[in-house]
Amino acid sequence: MTLILAAKYVLPIVGEPFVGGAVAIDGSVISAVGELESMRKEFPDADFEDHGDAAILPGFVNCHSHLELTAMRGALDSVEDDFRAWLLKVQELRSSMSDEDIRNAATDGAREGAAAGVTCFADIGRMGFAGLNALKTVGLRGIVCQETEFSPDNRTADDDFLKLAGKYEKLREEETNLVKMGISPHATYTVSSRLFELIAEYAIINRVPLSIHAAEAAEEISLLTTGKGFFNEVYEKFDLEWNSPHCSPVEYLERLGVLSARPLLAHCIHVSESDLDRIASNGAAIAHCPKSNAKFGHGVAPFEAILDAGIAVGIGSDSVASNNVCDLLEESRNAALFARNRDNRNRTITASEALEATTLGGARAMGLDHLIGSLEPGKQADIAVVSLDHLAQQPVNDIYAALVFSSNARDVRMTMVAGREIYNRGN
Ligand SMILES: [Zn+2]
Fold this sequence. Notes:
Elements: E1 2-10, E2 18-26, E3 29-35, H1 36-42, E4 47-50, E5 54-58, E6 60-65, H2 83-95, H3 99-115, E7 118-125, H4 128-138, E8 141-147, H5 157-172, E9 179-184, H6 193-206, E10 211-214, H7 218-226, H8 230-237, H9 249-255, E11 264-267, H10 273-282, E12 285-288, H11 290-296, H12 303-308, E13 312-315, H13 328-340, H14 351-365, E14 383-387, H15 399-406, E15 412-417, E16 420-424
Parallel strand pairs: 1-4, 1-5, 6-7, 7-8, 8-9, 10-11, 11-12, 12-13
Antiparallel strand pairs: 1-2, 2-3, 5-14, 14-15, 15-16
Bound molecules: zinc ion (ZN).
């Protein structure tokens, strides 16, 4: 049975918005997108749901999250001026939580995402099963990356790899049509060069999605380029062997063969033009997390330069421990505002570019744009409906501006994944 969703605005993202538009859905797939009148003639027997003063758009793709950390919302705000203290405090809080606590937190985070119009997550977790279970429970789509333990020493790389691959292969047995598994070598300073090489080789042969934190903090850059930085103390204290490559994080990842595995690189704040060329020529992607970056004071990623380099870039909330919400409309607003307010910017980011990054850009960055990211016949019916009836959104003179600059997660009315409603605000 065909279902027609109608609203005042329908935004396919590829192509102009329809005013008085509709989307026809057959099972899990979009069968038509266009004007309501012609759609009703084409499908006279279809079920019909009119959302009125609202916008129908592709579900939001959250390109970087840590659902396991959901219970730590606001718990780390006192140490956000010190990245090392923040990382240590996360470990401390995590060790005080049971597996069950973490699993429940992840599910709460996934529910928050669904209520915010997110239909797809690129999630990273130390306990891969918590994110996997969360997405399955709530009915979301996504790729959950099993994260490496702290493993910066080459001498343990072979063992570290076997353990990681074992965990990943076990988790793969639980994959579904909607939820797939990947691997996350956490960052250049916590993963040894040998382990990076082993993971890259394995990922290329087995087509494993990879997600890595890269070029995030100034301390990371100084450690990589000069061998000095806050992790040196830790390496020395625990007698760990770690040699600085004396180059940028992105060049380092290229040298190790990691960029050839086309990873999704989170943050990429401190990147040069040649770093962007390396990312583009290898076909790697970027998850841009403007709010998390600002909360830490890490700086502003060159969003428009990333887009202009032809790199697939999506938007990520990062964990709510460093955001403190999963709100992709707010995130798209911050992506546009920070880009406009950055020194040395090349040009102005438009509201429609910010919204595209939050939908189709994210799908491209995750390698899922053949399935999701736009409203087109044949694509999966992953849809968000955002109401436009709040005074702060009226009048709507430009639908992209209304969504990016005047709307929030709490305006989301309904969320659908593969034709199945997973959230309905109920009014
Ligand atoms: Zn992260």
